[in-house]
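Example 3.
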Amino acid sequence: MLFSSISFLYYFFPIVLAVYFLMPMRQGSLVARNMTLLAASIFFYAWGEPIYVLLMLVQAFSGWFFGMLIHRYQDRPGQKRAALIGAILVAGLCLGYFKYADFFVESFCTLFGLNTVALRIALPIGISFYTFQILSYDIDLYRGNATLQKNVFTFATYVTLFPQLIAGPIVRYVDISAQLTKREHTLANFAYGVRRFVFGLSKKVLLANTLGELVQIYKSEDDRSVLFAWLSLCAYALQLYFDFSGYSDMAIGIGRMFGFRFKENFNYPYIARSATDFWRRWHISMSGWFRDYIYIPLGGNRVRPLRHITNILFVWILTGLWHGAGWTFIFWGLYYAIVLIAEKYLWGNLLSKAPAFLAHLYTFFIFLIGWAFFDADGISTAFEEIARLFGQSGTGEFVGEEAMYYLRSYAVLLLVAILGATPIPARLARKFSERKPTMGILCEAGILLALLFVVTGHFVDGSFNPFIYFRF
Amino acid sequence: MHDEKKEKLRGMLITIVFLFVLGGFFILNRLISPPEILTDERRPAEKFPKITAESVAKTKFMDDFELWAADNFAFRKAFRTLHTETTFHVFFQTDKNGLYLGNSGAGKFEKIKEEEWKQSLRKIKKVEQNLTEWGIENIRFAFIPDKSIFAGRYFPGFDLEEARQIVETEFSDPETNIEIIDIANTLNASDFYRTDLHWDQSQILDVAQQLLGTSYKLNMEHSTSETGSPSPQTAGDFTGVYPGQLALNMKPDTLRYIPANNIRVSYLDVHTQEMTTGVLYKEKALTEDMDAYDFFLSGSQPLIFLENTQTTSDRTLYFFRDSFGSSIAPLLAASGSYKKIVCIDLRYIDLRMISQVITLTENADALFLYSSQILNNPTVLLVG
């Protein structure tokens, strides 16, 4: 089920909220409420993936079972390690088969000149997210950073928790283990959750989806001018940000309504001053996962430069693959690896001393070129699009009539989106609330109400509603 | 007020607003009786989907549920209007999914799909071959440009020059004997309704004359019994398709028509397969039909025969047309240039069926008149 749908907002969610808050908390026990969340989450997932819901539950059980083994053999290092390897193997095989089998078979056939065999395995929604969550539990348990969860239902609640199930953020078990048994349900928490949810939903529906229409128009139009290529790529960059950060906001918001506190996943990435800075602000939960479970165990940066470079390359190839089973994603990962290595060893110091304007401009180019790879069907298409940005592809026409039309049509939306990708609106709202608190409260409620209505208008009118990050 | 109290008030207000909207519409959507027909959108509302193991496994039930929920949402029109208003007046976008509000009223970009146009024109050439075999030699073709060409500024809509070029190129081969009539320069923005894609019959007498060619004069002396000259009559308010698509309350157009008392109408009843007497102008269409443009010749029919009872001409015109043709056919018939006009809608009758249903005569001309919407969809033309 999608958050941005009538089914979710006006059917599923009101029922779940009502049932959840009607469930008694005898002596502060959250068992009944957790069971409600588990049932709701399974239904939520089954609504979009009625078959693969079993896979998710099997994986959750497997993660819990290996966790039990790791705990049981905590004094026997060999068996403990074997249990961890078992956990990683099961999770890895599931992810590998359902997400990468087609890609590897196709690449193998191409490499050895064999007839391509297409397995056509459908990708289970959100498999990368919940697999990483399960792994984080088993690895942290092995390291002694997490405590054992004996109750399989509570563990399944953690894995399947519907707010962050299909598009993150990747919530580590250690971050919410305590909240699974004890969390606060307060009016302030609920209201904060509502704010985050409604703003996230609006980011997704009003900005990301509408900008997505522009990207689709570019792909279907004959106008291949330089201006249109830039316009489309900028729209795509903003679409990605509002789509994914909007989804994270919704997840954090819904989580908070139920008393959970998920970590932030975005921190205004487009105001970054370098690619390194950008990745500290973009999809923080994923970067953190790769850092803590892959990069640091490999030695991180406390190794010789050559090894360090190898580590970065390895981690970023994996990061690329995590985003999608395709050569463009691997290439995209490699691209960022090279940029990050260059920032570390070549121009990082220079960049930190450069005027802010230049640093932002540099980062803007870096992530835009990155998104060109990310969005392309193939590597050659990506290079073609990048060449088009500089008038080196197609007719080389600088301005087309259609580009001018769409620039004008989307100008306000683009400006709103650009402004919205900075901390300025939040800062202004905070200042306004500080100066006129009562008015601030009324305005906020009014804006939330208006946004809910406008978003509903989009749903009812059957607007364009793509889901970029679900494929991960 | 203390900060703590303010935070409490803030929390309460936000929570109430949120729960009021979610809970309110959850209940309202249960209470309202779902509409059978979405009148504004001219389509039946989605029915609640059937739950079967297969429809659930393939998520068809879930997809259909979302469509049903959208169609049966309380205050659906108001929400759709809000979407449109946000698009045009908050984000100042110049169109909404291709629908625009321009100088010539509302419209929808109808870009030319080059390959589809070519396929349509090839189908028309195939019909032409058949007509030639039947002994018909004077064959004419005209396309109706989309009204977006009059939108007043650049819209990524219909490219007139491209259309002309495609038609000329397709019909330039020596085996084709189709005379191209370019009506684009005869048309202007006021010839079209502001709320619809169609043209206004009272404004297209000049187009009718052009389509008849120089050999014939548009004689409208039977159009009114009193003045003897074409004088448009008002049938009533006409709300076209765009206000419904945009969910906007636009001022209705006025449907005007040129009366003619010398035309006998009959049509092939698709149900009984028999000829039935029809009317030139169906006044009830304005209030009873889903599409008020059915006023002209009662809307879409595969074969309609218009017989001029007072002309001295003995010739027949085979008029291959779409819905635009419904409004211009009465003018062509009333002109007296032809004894009989056979309106053929190839969307509803296959070319191969025509000779089985009607007796073809050699003493005839043929005219193809198609809008861009049809030329962009060659599959709808049932030509072999």
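DSSP finds twelve helices and 14 strands in chain B. The longest helix of chain B spans residues 3-31.
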